[in-house]
Amino acid sequence: MVVGFEKAVSATKSVVTSAKKAPTTLSLDRIINFARGDPTMYESYWRQMGEKCTVVISGHNLMSYFSNAGHFCWFLMPELDRAIRRLHCVVGNAVVDDDRYIVVGNGSTQLFQAVLYALSSSYDPDTEPLSVVAAAPFYSSYPEETEFLRSRLYKWAGDAYSFDKDGAYIEVVTSPNNPDGAIREAVVNRDGGKLIHDLAYYWPQYTPITGKADNDIMLFTFSKATGHAGSRIGWAIVKDVEVATKMVKFMELSSIGVSKESQLRAAKILEVISDDCQNSAPDKEENFFEYGQRLMSDRWEKLREVVKRNGVFSLPKYPQDYCNFIGKYTDPSPAFAWLKSKDGLNCDNLLRELKIVTRGGTNFGVDSNYTRISMLSPNEEFNLLLERLSAIQGTIINGNN
């Protein structure tokens, strides 16, 4: 039932009152932020790895701009190129044959800008800018990132489902989708369209790996693959050398390449993951993806139980599928929970009353009764989230108390 504004405010206040009286140990004085996708939950795994991923760089090392002067992506270190290709082969989530071109960037955000430039730069700038669309709910940063430079080459055109303009366009396909975790395909499917596949979450800890993605342009990021967001490393796998070369030109003009220190660290960590995944010793410990899949699955089980108990919210249901990497059927465990209020309340505002900061549905092109909650926070914060959600009573929301 969708309630009016006054009733929604009253219901929200009742929920907070109920939570304050609930016999729990939660501290309502502490604000917990679940709006960000900061993958700090993986810190404990990498801490237990000790010095295994340590990289030592002397003062005289890595002084040149160039990593491989004869390569089309002259700032991409060969070590990182090899590590990326190897990991994708080990996991089986993307085609990285020799005819695929790797472009490294300062996170996938910069690569997104580079792709927009590469795909739109061949069009006449005196004509109307190229439309960029994504199916709602879409990643909340796409509109801002697209409009930020106020380019004459491209512009944000909104929800792909409602896009009806003729001519060339760019569609961003995020799969698994951020925010709702759904497996996505292109929506518009018309002549003149160019596709960007954002596959940041196509890793075994988030979703079953059902096959090798083989799209024209695929974006991945170190932050979501391993948790190392601070290194600011992303990469694109591109089929068309002309598109890849234009992306490199964008990188050259915007940042003159990518930090070699970050690339070496990323290469080392990716190699460690690949080594562990291919370790067939009988006494081997779980590899990073097995650890992540177990942790994410456990978190989702706990969250679903809390949501089921309080009766105020609902969560999407995902089909189980066979994961080629894990070697069995697994349930998707997305990096974000797409929470919906059952009674039409502003979900983001309701949770903020309990000092839980989330990112509301309007940021993703949908109604305010949705909100996105990060599942990647440290254990202490995640447990506090569960505690606060447990204090909300569905009978209070429905006015049946």
Automatic annotation (TrEMBL):
GO MF, one annotated term: carbon-sulfur lyase activity
GO BP terms, alphabetized: amino acid metabolic process
Domain Alliinase C-terminal: 32-392
Pfam families from the UniProt entry: Alliinase_C
UniProt keyword list: Aminotransferase, Pyridoxal phosphate, Transferase
Obligatory cofactor(s): pyridoxal 5'-phosphate
Family assignment from sequence similarity: Belongs to the alliinase family.
PANTHER family, alphabetized: BIFUNCTIONAL ASPARTATE AMINOTRANSFERASE AND GLUTAMATE/ASPARTATE-PREPHENATE AMINOTRANSFERASE-RELATED (PTHR43795), TRYPTOPHAN AMINOTRANSFERASE-RELATED PROTEIN 1 (PTHR43795:SF15)
Name of the protein: Alliinase C-terminal domain-containing protein
